[in-house]
Amino acid sequence: MAFTIKQMAMIVGALGVISFILGVIAENKKPAMGVPINGNDRVICKYPSDPTVVLGYLAAAFLAITTAAGYFAVFYPYKGKVVPKAVLFRNKGFLVFLNIALATTGLAAALLLWPTITEQLHQTRNIHHNLETECPTAKTGVLGGGAFLSLDSCLFWLVALMLADNAREDHFEETDSKVIAAIE
Question: How far, in Å, CA of 172 to CA of 177, rounded?
Answer without folding.
Answer: 8
